[in-house]
Design brief:
By secondary structure, this protein is of the alpha/beta class. It contains 5 helices and 5 strands.
Length: about 160
């Protein structure tokens, strides 16, 4: 993809990642850019068997393959894909060094989860060398609250 306009998109097997990939493919088709699909993975057990690292990498590759097989809108778009070991935000911002866009999905986690775990999307926004598009995951529609009658106080009404 040397010399070609490039969009980097992070996937992880989640709905947010699938929505990001779909958006990136549509944007690439509209602009003539190529898409670099990246799935970051990490081996969090340094004391575990060395074979475990290979198993995790293989699982990551299988997840990436599934994402690409089910991705709509690939026709006419140049797509490359890779699994890379490392922290997701670091891997994605490194992959985006020569890209015109980095696309990630939002997982819509709660405030508590965000505080404890951080946000890959937020970290990408702060570290990326190019513009970042964050694709939200739609929230479940909530029923509108019933209006609550308010008694008029002194001087009201």
């Amino acid at each position: 993809m040397d010399g070609m306009r490039q969009i980097v998109v992070g996937v992880d097997g989640s709905q947010g990642g699938r929505r990001a990939l779909d958006w990136a493919l549509r944007q690439a088709a509209a602009t003539g850019a190529a898409v670099q699909v990246v799935l970051a993975w990490s081996w969090d057990d340094p004391d575990g068997p060395v074979a475990g690292r290979g198993v995790y990498r293989d699982l990551a590759q299988q997840a990436l393959d599934r994402e690409l097989e089910t991705a709509p809108g690939r026709r006419g778009v140049t797509v490359a894909a890779e699994v890379v070991e490392g922290r997701a935000a670091d891997v994605l911002t490194q992959a985006a060094q020569t890209a015109e866009l980095l696309v990630v999905g939002s997982h819509g986690h709660s405030r508590v989860h965000h505080t404890v775990m951080g946000s890959v999307a937020e970290e990408c926004v702060s570290k990326s060398p190019c513009p970042v598009v964050v694709i939200p995951v739609p929230t479940t529609a909530h029923r509108a609250a019933e209006p609550v009658p308010v008694a008029a106080g002194p001087g009201v009404g």
